[in-house]
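Run: sequence + S-adenosyl-L-homocysteine -> complex structure.
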Amino acid sequence: MAKNAAQQIVLDDELDELIDGLRQPEMMISPKYFYDERGSQLFDEITRLPEYYPTETELGIMQDNIDEIASLVGRQASLIEFGSGSSLKTRILLDHLDELAAYVPVDISEDHLLQSAQQIREEFPDLDVLPVVADFTQPFRLPTPRVMPVRNVVYFPGSTIGNFTNDGAQELLAVMHGEAGADGALLIGVDLQKDPAIIEAAYNDSAGVTAEFNLNMLRHLNREFGADFDVDAFTHSAEYNEDEGRIEIRLVSEQDQEFTVGSQSFSIGKDEAILTEYSHKYTLDGFAAMAETAGFRVKRVWTDAGRLFSVQYLVRD
Ligand code: SAH
Ligand code: AVI
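>> structure
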């Protein structure tokens, strides 16, 4: 389909950002490029893997504590979800929240978002579902619900916050602080530090789905940005960096090779890598300090018995 002028400007800006990342001392590509339609499907597959503990654990925490969560959110809130994907955990909220004013799922993966929103509309016919296709790291406009909300509650599950550097996470929390407004809140999933073996297994699954998810980014860039990556000449790597408390995901080049993105050429040597994702794991104190810098106070933390994951309710100071 032909791009309109506004879409072309976004693509040109993204191309500049991609090229800038590949010119860094360590080549890097933003994890937002994982999510074309196939990438969103692969992520859904990841959530069902036996090694990938975050989704099942977060779902359990939500189910165990939904009455308290619902009473904190209160009635007639507008629920604004950042990086909503398939809105899996959201259904627990939609089933229990009182007279929700609107559900606003925000995601960069357009087709996947619109399909998920349509499914939610069918399951919850009385709900005002207002999907927004946007990169939430850039300014975007929120739609106005039919009914005036009592408060805005931003929902950010999955520990997607961990995919940002600490500075990036703080900036994003500050944006959410703004979206929440005076009486609003942030309900957020935050993955916790634990035995590195458990974490490394989650990102090196035996079925190879995470490897496929990582490599699919190159297919996405080949299709959307005229890149010419040889996908078969890269392999997946995921290692836990204990000092930084994060998984670092890379695409490692199997040979000396060249590739182009847009009109720019790049060389990469055998065993050199492109960084594609961080996934930070937090301590409760470390996350609270970061949230406070963005103007939030941690009102309530729920965890599972093994303290693998947390769901937190943050209010504005
Ligand atoms: N919230 C879901 C999905 C998490 S996967 C869950 O907890 O299971 C991360 C989601 O964030 C994907 O759907 C992806 O498309 C979206 N995403 C990643 N970076 C984004 C960005 N910069 N702007 C908007 N959406 C983004
Ligand atoms: C979306 N995000 C929180 C996932 C994570 O665990 O960091 C993305 C992911 N990457 C590899 N596996 C899952």
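>> summary
DSSP finds nine helices and twelve strands in the chain. The first strand starts at residue 77 and ends at 82.
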